[in-house]
Amino acid sequence: MADFAVRQRDPKVRDRLERAIEGRGAFRRFRDAVHEFDLNDQWHAFSNDRKIGRAREFLATEGIHVTGAPA
After folding, report:
1. Predicted structure pTM score
2. N or C, where is the chain less crowded by C-beta within 10 Å?
């Protein structure tokens, strides 16, 4: 969430997202802010890309090399 927040060009959006991830209730506040600024598609694409990257890293450490684009 922090990496997504710092990539935002609009300082207002970036600040709101960064504040949202502080303390208890961070996930809900972040989700609400993403919705408020209509960043749902961007967030999901970013999040999915990061998940795929972590999966590929794990598989590589196990000696499994993935080829091709994810479905």
Report:
1. 0.82
2. C
Q: Using CA atoms, how far apart are residues 21 and 61, in angstroms rounded to an integer?
A: 30
Taking each helix axis from N to C end, the angle separating 11-20 and 26-36, rounded to the nearest 10 degrees, works out to 160
Distance CA 54, CA 65 (A): 13
User: Is residue 24 within 8 Å of 37, Cβ to Cβ?
Assistant: no
CB 8 within 8 A of CB 17: yes
